[in-house]
Amino acid sequence: MKRFPLPALVLSLICALPLSAFGGGDYPDHDLLTARLKKLASDYPHYVSLESLTQTSGGRDIWLLSLGAGNLADRPAVAVVGGTEGDHLLGTGLALRFAEMLLEESSGEETRRLLENHTFYVFPDMTPDAGAQYFAPLKYERKGNDNSSYTDRYGNEIGHPYRDLNGDGMITLMRVKDPHGDWLPHPDDKRVMVRADKSSGELGEYSLYAEGVDLLKSERWTEAGVNFNMNFSFKFPVFTSGAGDHAVSEKESRAIASFLFEAKNVYAVVSFGPANNLAAPLRYNERDASGRIITGILEGDARINQMVSRKYVDMTGDISGPAVAGSDGDFFQWAYFHYGRHSFSTPGWSFPREASGNESRRSGDERDDCPALLFLRWADEQGMDDIFIPWESVVHPEFPDKEIEVGGISPFAMTNPPREMAEEIARSHYRFIVELAGLRPEIEIRNIKKEELGRGVYRITADVANTGRLPTVTELGERVRWVQKTVIRLETDRGQEALSGNRIEVLGAIEGGKAETRSWLIRGRGTVKIRAGAENTGFDEVTVRL
């Protein structure tokens, strides 16, 4: 019989495979998102700038919402990025609600000061082509954009496996009765399919595929389009379906990368996606961090990740699920390893793994930790009766003599909170990002001393202090050319002479609460100006009269 390999977008619906689904909730489609962004720009013109960085192959705008007052480029900035994966609409909702909540509170003194001294770049949805599938007549979890047909790298057409065989408007799973198959129903919940443990003599009963038919008889499958979260340069997954022909090949990834490389004021990136270093921080690994190509977080940056992670858990209640490392080619890792900024990622929410029905666990059977099983137990406790499509017999045009059923967990269901929880989740993440902004590196020139040494010579001493909690530059950022370092400049009046000390000096990273002391010898009376800072820390300037 023809075989339909399981696509990535349905792997989350079965056991022993990674979660990546999303579902339910009242989330805006691209048109409503656009309308809400334009309303923010209209209602808060003093604080909001809205622009389309590019349009996708599907004709949808990649929006950038810049928030702040005055010259945004000279103030420390956080980039907030939603929709890093097309099946994660919650991320888009969290990014959008962050901007709306911030502006709703802009009349308050504290928020007003924040907007006058800080910049936020909000990219609410980087995958609008894929996200549109959530609102389409045929709903299935999709990650690729519209920039492809179903072809392989040689231009050969590949059969599309999806066909709504039971007419419910959703693509779920298709199980085929097969004595040589690898799958069988879970002993504790017949709705869930698990792999047979053949090492213990267990026999499979079914083969498992995506719901559909192989119209072109190709026996091959690939997802249409390119996945934004596989298209970046760090560990780019060459020759992998969905990654693109080369790193940053897509309009969406080029648009955000080009903007951020020019945005020298960004010190941190918060992205909503499957990676999760906020539930638990990344750990320092000397081997990975010391190689010719660095693939592990550096020690100082790991300490910062730990500090920020503690704040996140305290403020959100640790609702985002277990820690998850980044995947090859993803945006989260690019933002740290190649962009050099603090990079924080979270899915925003995950269903509780410890459902009360888990006491029936059989000793030693890892399948009792199956995400699909735990999710259904939790959903049952919550009274959610619309998230599982019961297995239903269907007639398949290619296998008329086979016993075939279609069913499974509804697309997008496993990582979206119940509707009544969504607003509070958005509120807690809003508070966290505002708290993160409060940790920003900030340069202040302090402890200025002047001494008259005689014969018209003066010594000036000053501390260049970082009054924030975050360092002025990440440890990795000190090695990356795209990260602005703190610069201290000395300007003298005509007739004055600098006898010692650098007129211009680039400083290394200054840790939070620490300072660098510098001194100069100046001959001649007049005015001396000292200016220090960078776009990602802000600038300070003092005048000393001699």
Entry summary:
The chain has 546 residues and is of the alpha+beta class. It has a 6-stranded mixed sheet, sandwiched between helices. Strands 8-5-12-11 form a 4-stranded antiparallel sheet, with no helix packed on it. It has a 4-stranded antiparallel sheet with strand order 13-14-18-16, with no helix packed on it.
Q: Can you put this structure into words, describing what you see?
A:
Residues 1-14, 16-25 and 218-222 have low confidence and may be disordered. Among the domains are: 30-134 and 225-351 and 417-438, Zn peptidases (Aminopeptidase, 3-Layer(aba) Sandwich); 443-545, Immunoglobulins (Immunoglobulin-like, Sandwich), CATH 2.60.40. Strands 1-2-4-3-9-10 form a 6-stranded mixed sheet, with helices on both faces. It has a 4-stranded antiparallel sheet with strand order 8-5-12-11, with no helix packed on it. Strands 13-14-18-16 form a 4-stranded antiparallel sheet, with no helix packed on it. Helix 3 crosses helix 11 (419-438) and helix 8 (299-316) crosses helix 11. The chain starts with 7 loop residues before the first helix and ends with a strand. Strand 6 (183-186) and strand 7 form a beta hairpin. The chain is α+β, with helices and mostly antiparallel strands. It contains 11 helices and 20 strands. It has helices spanning 8-11, 30-43, 89-104, 109-117, 128-131, 251-262, 286-289, 299-316, 331-337, 371-381, 419-438, and strands spanning 48-55, 61-67, 77-81, 119-123, 173-177, 183-186, 189-195, 206-210, 266-272, 342-346, 388-394, 404-409, 443-454, 457-466, 487-492, 497-500, 504-506, 515-523, 527-534, 538-545.
